[in-house]
């Protein structure tokens, strides 16, 4: 194959890797991303099934699936404890754990399940975290949570942090509250989307062997992104509780 033909085909494939098209549902006059909601519901259903299996017939000495689920809960408990400390971590385990397991499930669902085999009128099934609306919603939930944490502990005195250590830092401290959700949402969205686009292009060029290491790397990266997001969320809440 001549180099110019190769590069021409590569750029054609990149142009055909569509980003942002969705299969819309019209619900009460509002358009929602149908394919994103379907995969989200699928992930939530899987998490509920795992939880039920882990708590059914629970024994004092865990074994089998109960042992696996308790290890998973211990993992997210350690995330909360390391960031929030002994005094505050317990009440935030449900939130931090939900963030981690939901993002983990979404990323793995997009990386493992062959959603592309299911054809839709427009758009395609994929990891919900490759949609900016999903990641922004998760980032805003994190922002609301650390505001709630600070206000519940300090009341209106929480807002003194904006003028500390000197009032001149007020604009910077306010800007920080905008950059935190932006950073959280775009980091998760960008990594998941970049991984899926890379796999799409490589699969189109070399459909058999080459994409497999990239897919394995995507599974690992999806796990790391879930850990990073939940750890940063816990760190922001800890900062508000200082």
From TrEMBL:
Domain of life from the UniProt record: Eukaryota
Alphabetized Pfam families for the sequence: ATP-synt_A (PF00119)
GO molecular function: proton-transporting ATP synthase activity, rotational mechanism
Chief place of localization: membrane
Keyword Transmembrane helix: yes
Alphabetical keyword list: ATP synthesis, CF(0), Chloroplast, Hydrogen ion transport, Ion transport, Membrane, Plastid, Thylakoid, Transmembrane, Transmembrane helix, Transport
Record's bilayer topology term: Multi-pass membrane protein
Subcellular location: Membrane; Plastid, Chloroplast thylakoid membrane
InterPro entries assigned: ATP_syn_F0_a_bact/chloroplast, ATP_synth_F0_asu, ATP_synth_F0_asu_AS, F0_ATP_A_sf
Annotated GO CC locations: chloroplast thylakoid membrane; plasma membrane; proton-transporting ATP synthase complex
Coiled coil (UniProt feature): none
Transmembrane segments: 32-53, 92-112, 132-151, 188-210, 216-238
Function in brief: Key component of the proton channel; it plays a direct role in the translocation of protons across the membrane.
Subunit structure: F-type ATPases have 2 components, CF(1) - the catalytic core - and CF(0) - the membrane proton channel. CF(1) has five subunits: alpha(3), beta(3), gamma(1), delta(1), epsilon(1). CF(0) has four main subunits: a, b, b' and c.
Stated family: Belongs to the ATPase A chain family.
Descriptive protein name: ATP synthase subunit a, chloroplastic
């Amino acid at each position: 194959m001549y180099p110019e033909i190769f590069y021409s085909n590569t750029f054609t494939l990149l142009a055909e890797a569509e980003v942002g098209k969705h299969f819309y549902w019209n619900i009460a006059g509002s358009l929602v991303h149908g394919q994103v909601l379907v995969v989200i519901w699928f992930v939530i259903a899987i998490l509920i099934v795992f939880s039920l299996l882990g708590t059914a017939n629970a024994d004092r000495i865990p074994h089998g699936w109960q042992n696996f689920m308790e290890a998973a809960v211990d993992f997210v408990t350690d995330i909360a404890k390391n960031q929030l400390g002994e005094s505050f971590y317990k009440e935030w385990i449900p939130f931090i754990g939900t963030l981690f397991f939901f993002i983990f499930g979404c990323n793995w669902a997009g990386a493992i399940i062959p959603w592309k085999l299911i054809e839709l009128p427009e758009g395609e099934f994929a990891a919900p975290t490759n949609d900016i609306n999903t990641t922004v919603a998760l980032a805003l939930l994190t922002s609301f949570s650390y505001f709630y944490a600070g206000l519940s502990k300090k009341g209106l005195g929480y807002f003194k942090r904006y003028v500390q250590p000197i009032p001149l830092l007020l604009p910077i401290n306010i800007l920080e509250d905008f950059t935190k959700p932006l950073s959280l949402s775009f980091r998760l969205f960008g990594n998941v989307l970049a991984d899926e686009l890379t796999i799409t292009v490589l699969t189109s060029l070399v459909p058999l062997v080459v994409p497999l290491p990239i897919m394995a790397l995507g599974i690992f990266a999806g796990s790391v992104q879930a850990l990073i997001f939940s750890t940063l969320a816990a760190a922001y809440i800890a900062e508000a509780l200082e």
